[in-house]
Write a structure and sequence with these properties.
By secondary structure, the chain is of the alpha/beta class. The protein has 16 helices and 11 strands. The strands form 3 sheets. A 7-stranded mixed sheet has the order 5-4-3-6-7-11-10, with helices on both faces. A two-stranded antiparallel sheet has the order 1-2.
Length: 387
C-alpha cells in the first residue's frame, strides 16, 4: 500500500506529463493560428499588389469595349454568319490588322469574344459569345446604346468633379461641367437626347421581359396604364405586346414624345410629371425616381397617386433596391446597383438608388398606405404602391 508521500509522488508522475502535454498543445494551436493569420495577411498583401492595377488601368476596359462597338466588330462577325480570321475581320472593317489584333486580344481576355485555335483546316478565328451579342448595335439583346451613353464625353466629364461634389464645394457634378442639369442639356442637344432615349430603350428590352416573367399578374385587371417618363415608348410597346388588354399612355416631356414612334394601343402625351399625370388605372415608372432626391420623388409620387383610382389603382415602380445585407449569391447585381448609385451622384443633382427603408419612407410620405417589393431577374425590382 502506498504512503501519503508515495501517493502524491505517484499522482505527480502520472498526471504531470499529461498536463504538460496539454499546455504544449495549446501553445501549438496559438502558434498555428498566428502563422495562419500572418499567412492570410501576407496573401492579402500579395493580392493587393496585383489588384491595385485594376484601378490604375480600369478605364481601359470600357474604352476597348466602346471601340468594339464603334468599329462594329460584333455586328461584322454576326453578319458573316461564322467565326472570322483576323484578315477577314480587318478587311471587312477596313482597318489595319496589327492594332485590330491587339484590341481583339484584350476582348478575348475579357471573354467578350472567343478565339478558336488554328487547325489543319485553317488559321485561328474569332467567334461570338453570349456576351459579345450584347454589343450588337441593334437587336433585342443590344446594350450598345447604354454603353455609348455612359462612355460619351458628355457623361464622362462630370466624373472628374465627383470629389468636389462630395465635399460640397461645387455645384452638382454635371452642372459644374456643362452649366446646366442633364435634362436641360438634353433638351438643348437633340443628339444627346436621342442617345438617352436609345439607352433607356436598351434597358427596357432587358427589364420589361423580366417584369413580365416574374410579375405578369401585376397587370391583370388593368385596362389603362400611363408610363411616366416613358421616353420613346419602348417599355409600353413591350408591355402591351405581352398584355394586349392594356391601353397605354406614353407620358414624357414634349420634346421627348415628339420623336416617339406611333403604336397601336399607345397614345403619346407631352407634359411635366411635376405638374400633373394623365389619369389611368395604373402608373408605371422605370428608372425615373432614381433621378431625383426624396423631396422631388414625393412630389412625383403624389401626382401619380392623384392620377389613379382610390379603390383599385396602383403605381408600379421598376427600380433598383439596394440590399445592405450584401447577399453573396447576388453579388454581381449588388455591384451594378452600387455603381448605378454613383452614376446618379455624377449625372443628376439629387438622384440616388434606394434601400428598402428609403423606399418605404418616400412612399409613405407620398400617402401610399402599403407597398410590396418583388425581386426579378434584373438590376431592378418591381415595387407596387397602393393608395
Amino acid at each position: 500500500m502506498l504512503s501519503t508521500f508515495d501517493s502524491n509522488l505517484f499522482l505527480q508522475i502520472t498526471y504531470t506529463p499529461k498536463t504538460l502535454g496539454q499546455t504544449h498543445t495549446h501553445k501549438d494551436m496559438e502558434d498555428k493560428q498566428s502563422r495562419e493569420l500572418r499567412s492570410e495577411e501576407e496573401e492579402e498583401e500579395e493580392h493587393a499588389k496585383v489588384d491595385v492595377w485594376k484601378y490604375v488601368f480600369g478605364f481601359v476596359e470600357i474604352a476597348v469595349v466602346k471601340c468594339a462597338i464603334e468599329l462594329g466588330i460584333a455586328d461584322t462577325i454576326e453578319s458573316h454568319g461564322s467565326p472570322m480570321t483576323l484578315l477577314e475581320l480587318s478587311s471587312a472593317l477596313r482597318c489595319d490588322p496589327s492594332p485590330l489584333y491587339r484590341i481583339m486580344r484584350v476582348l478575348v481576355h475579357l471573354k467578350i469574344f472567343k478565339e478558336k485555335p488554328a487547325t489543319q483546316l485553317g488559321p485561328k478565328v474569332f467567334a461570338q459569345t453570349p456576351l459579345s451579342k450584347w454589343l450588337l448595335k441593334s437587336g433585342e439583346t443590344s446594350m450598345s446604346a447604354l454603353i455609348l451613353l455612359e462612355s460619351s464625353p458628355v457623361m464622362l466629364a462630370p466624373w472628374h468633379g465627383l470629389s468636389a461634389r462630395i465635399q460640397g464645394i461645387s455645384n452638382p457634378a454635371f452642372e459644374a461641367v456643362h452649366g446646366e442639369d442633364v435634362w436641360s442639356y438634353a433638351k438643348a442637344n437633340p443628339d444627346h437626347s436621342k442617345l438617352i432615349n436609345e439607352a433607356m430603350a436598351c434597358d427596357a428590352r432587358v427589364a420589361v421581359p423580366a417584369v413580365i416573367e416574374s410579375c405578369l399578374e401585376v397587370f391583370k385587371g388593368i385596362a389603362t396604364i400611363v408610363d411616366v417618363g416613358g421616353g420613346d415608348g419602348t417599355t409600353l410597346r413591350l408591355l402591351v405586346e405581352a398584355c394586349p388588354w392594356v391601353q397605354g399612355i406614353n407620358f414624357d416631356l414634349p420634346h421627348v414624345v415628339s420623336v416617339a414612334q406611333e403604336c397601336d394601343h399607345i397614345k403619346n402625351v407631352g407634359g411635366d410629371m411635376f405638374d400633373s399625370v394623365p389619369k389611368a388605372d395604373a402608373v408605371i415608372m422605370k428608372w425615373v425616381l432614381h433621378d431625383w432626391g426624396d423631396d422631388e420623388c414625393i412630389r412625383i409620387l403624389k401626382k401619380c397617386r392623384e392620377a389613379i383610382p382610390e379603390n383599385k389603382g396602383k403605381v408600379i415602380i421598376v427600380e433598383a433596391v439596394i440590399d445592405e445585407k450584401d447577399e453573396k449569391e447576388d453579388i454581381k447585381l449588388t455591384n451594378v446597383r452600387l455603381m448605378l448609385d454613383m452614376v446618379m451622384m455624377a449625372h443628376t443633382n439629387t438622384g440616388k438608388e434606394r434601400t428598402l427603408k428609403e423606399w418605404g419612407y418616400v412612399l409613405g410620405e407620398a400617402g401610399f398606405s402599403r407597398h410590396t417589393i418583388t425581386p426579378i431577374h434584373a438590376v431592378q425590382s418591381v415595387i407596387q404602391a397602393f393608395p
